[in-house]
Design goal:
The strands form two sheets. This protein has a two-stranded antiparallel ribbon with strand order 1-2. Strands 3-4 form a two-stranded antiparallel sheet. Strand 1 and strand 2 form a beta hairpin. It has two domains: 31 residues; 32 residues, no CATH class. Helices cover 30% and strands 19% of the residues. By secondary structure, it is an alpha+beta fold.
Amino acid sequence: MDTIIFGPLALKHILVPAGVVIAAFILFAVAKKLFKKKGPSEYTQLVECRGCGWQGRVSRLAGRCPACNTPLGDERVQPKK
């Protein structure tokens, strides 16, 4: 660690800042993964209610307007059983 690289710079004077920079890059990559915005779910869809005008995401399987309970999205086109 006391090996002289250039003038007054020893190996330890180079390795410590290099380690800090590498650690910062690793922390940045981890933080970027943690706070990455996820795309919309495959189980929801963006819809607008024709009855009351509500807009938002509802389930593809059982989508209903939270304001007026009207069937929305893919459920609206399902045949009644």
